[in-house]
Amino acid sequence: MSSLVTTIHVIICLVLIIAVLLQSGKAADLAGTFGGVGSQKVFGPRGAGTILSKVTTISAILFMFTSLGLWLLSDRGGKSIMEQEKAQQTVETQKKEDEQKAPATEQKPQQPEHKKEQEK
Prior knowledge:
Layout: H1 2-22, H2 30-33, H3 40-43, H4 47-73, H5 81-101, H6 113-119
Helix pairs in contact: 1-4
């Protein structure tokens, strides 16, 4: 499920980037620099602006929803790194304390039976 939402999120990001880059600023067209109407001939004087602004708005809204969806699908139940480190240190401390509490008696290694008989 998460990979599906991630794929949709990436596609929406690309559409949003393209829609923003295709929009022309206020008289900032390259064709406007040379005195021509250039890109306005294709969509009309305001046609491209409204189509691209609608695509941008819809893409931005979908981007927000997919971002929230990815957040909800993420592992929110996990602990922070600091909490995990603290828990690990606590476990290590408990192991050391248990080792210190255990009696530290040294046992001699037992000799095999045939050596015991030879010593007698």
